[in-house]
Structures are given as C-alpha cells and as structure tokens.
Specification:
The chain is mainly alpha-helical and about 240 residues long. The chain has nine helices and seven strands, in the order βαββββααααααββαα. About 0% of the residues have low confidence.
C-alpha cells in the first residue's frame, strides 16, 4: 500500500503526476539490481482503478492506492533513495521501456533516450559549430539551392548546410564520454564504450524504424539497456547536465 499525505491541499492532477514520478523512480532503482535484464525488467505498476483520493480536512489530502507486483523483489527504500531523484522525460522513456513487452518496443523507447541527448542544449553547444561546409561553400550551396524552382530540391540542398564534420556515431560517442559514460558492466564483463558500439545501435535503430525483420537482441541487453540506465542515473542526480 502506498500512502501520501500533504499539509496543503493537492489537486487530483498533481497527485497523479506525483504517483507517476514515484513509480518511475522506484522502477529505475529496481533496474539497478538487474544482472541479466534479458530475463525480465521489473517495474512498479500503478493500478489507478484502486486509487482513492480522500479529504481528511480542508487542509489535508490523503492519497491511497495499491502498487501491485507480479513477482517478489526486495528493494530497501529510505530517504536517500529519493535524494537523487530529479524527474525528467528520460525517466519516463526508461520506464516505458521497462513496461514494454516486446524487445523491439523496448529498443524503441530506450533509443529515444539517446536521441533526446542529441537535441539537448549541451549537445548543440559541443557540435553545432563544427559545420561540414565553410562560409564560402555555404554561400555557393545556398545560391545553387535558390536557383531551383522545385521546393523539394531546394530544401534538400539547404538541409545539408546543417551537417557537421563529425558523423552521428562520433558525436554521440564523445557526448556520452563527456557526461562520464566510458565503461559499463554486463553480466561479469566490463565493456568499454566505443564508436563501433554506438554505430551498431544507430544501424539497428534505423532498421527498426524502417520495419526490418532483422533485429540483434544482444545489442538491446548488452549495450543499449546498460548505456541508457547510466544516462537516466546522471539525469536523476543532476538534470541540468544536459542544459
């Protein structure tokens, strides 16, 4: 049973957000105990149909509900468990991946965490100025694009102006290293993060998004799960890391 009390009156929407955030964070804490996630990824499931909001007084709100688990897992919780618990979209993506039943669905949710990083302010600061074309070349490409009346061709040419001198896998690899992810553990093996690993994750992502039947399950458990779990932990400790 989960019971939340507050001295200030809480609207139902706030209670829902709070319970969601708590369930997501506890699910992340459970993931820290996963030695072999291929056997299953535990998460906390909220049964909203059993949620009860009761006003005990004009200034108190009591929320009670049932948190049901299908398997028994021991997790010692104390105030320090939530000390590093800053909520972010990354935690929501991670939780959705834990809940997803198919491996491909899990991959979809967790790869979104890496793509979220690629759109962060810190990522843009690190790589936004390293454009592939210099100013003279940009002027020439812009002039060529403007000479076309076909908007499709014009947009296609102008879009390459944003390309950087580094490949996608290079940028993501260096970004992950910059935030402190250089090594992670899978089973009894310590794995060094590399550009090749990031490249494989991106290739698998592209195949998945283009409905390819080819899917490398080992990438999901050996690399993607381990990497994004580290990213979520960094965000939970300090969400401004990516600002």
């Amino acid at each position: 049973m989960l019971e939340l009390t507050s001295l200030d009156s809480l609207a139902a929407e706030i209670v829902v957000q709070l319970v969601n955030a708590i369930s997501h964070h506890i699910s992340y804490l459970l993931s820290q105990e996963e030695i072999n996630p291929a056997y299953g990824t535990a998460y906390l499931d909220v049964h909203w149909e059993q949620m009860l909001l009761a006003d005990h007084s004009p200034t108190d709100t009591l929320a009670t509900g049932i948190l049901k688990l299908t398997t028994r897992r021991k997790l010692a919780l104390n105030p320090s468990s939530f000390r590093d618990g800053q909520y972010s979209d990354l935690l929501a993506f991670f939780y959705d991946g834990l809940r997803a039943e198919s491996y491909k669905s899990k991959y979809f949710h967790w790869i979104l965490i890496l793509e979220y990083l690629e759109h962060s302010d810190r990522y843009r600061r690190m790589f936004g100025s390293r454009l592939l074309f210099d100013e003279t070349e940009q002027t020439a490409i812009t002039a060529l694009a403007n000479s076309y009346t076909d908007p499709v061709k014009k947009i296609a040419l102008l879009s390459i102006l944003k390309r950087t001198s580094m490949s996608r896998k290079e940028k993501l690899f260096y970004f992950l290293k910059a935030i402190g992810i250089v090594q992670y553990r899978y089973l009894m093996q310590d794995i060094e993060l590399s550009e090749d690993i990031i490249g494989e994750l991106i290739v698998s992502r592209n195949k998945l998004f283009h409905q390819s039947s080819d899917f490398n399950e080992s990438l999901l458990w050996m690399h993607l799960f381990q990497i994004v779990r580290e990213v979520v932990g960094i965000a939970a400790r300090n969400n401004s890391t990516f600002a």
